[in-house]
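#lab-general

N.A. 3:47 PM
ok so I finally got the sequence cleaned up, no stray characters, all 250 residues accounted for. can someone with queue access submit it? mine expired

B.Y. 3:52 PM
send it over

N.A. 3:53 PM
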Amino acid sequence: MQGTNVSPVDQRSPEGTRSSWLRRLPILVILAVALVGAFLLRDQLSFDALARHREELMAFRDAHYLWAVVVFLAAYVAIVALSLPGATVATLAGGFLFGLFPGVFFNVLAAGTGAIAIFLAARMGFGADTAVRIETAGGRAGKLQAALRENEWSALLLMRLVPAVPFFLANLIPAFVGTRLWPFAVTTFLGIIPGAFVFTSVGSGLGKVFALGQKPDLGVIFTPPVLLPLLGLAVLAALPIALKLLRKER
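B.Y. 4:20 PM
back already:
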């Protein structure tokens, strides 16, 4: 029997299969909840729902401020971690209930924590295996993976700063290319600050919007005063990638 390597748990054995399913259970639950929530919770996590319940929310905040913060953070983290509809409304609610400050801090904390939770679930479930397969297979996907790893910090920050990348995709893509947790966490918290600041500011002015029976203009993020600084930050984030490409060409 010398020279025979026996792994502690063979993935083809019942123990290995059970372990594999346990690792994938969190992301499978998230996907199932996200699918159900997209149909059943769309109306409950909408701006209209926030407008209907604004008096109750403000009364609860005034009577139990600390509990209001805890419940808000928990709800926002769950929305992001489970990929439920309503993340933008939650950001507006943070500004409406707690003002620009500390509302923007609560929004960034909750959104970043939820993003890390779904990233870890995806990486543990399928991401790690997918990353190994891509690296082993090579080809275009392997080259893309290598490029992303080489420019990990800049690429992750770009995905957060550019509004064209949906938030939930920016949480999942890094998990499937083998991104490390630390760069993902840091770039997530830093990269969502500008957008969170804008939407929290809009939320802090919802009192007047509610009084007029109107809806907030969420397209404000695409106006030049907001979009141009975001693009400027994106250019700065892309600068290290451009410099590396120039050095390689030389």
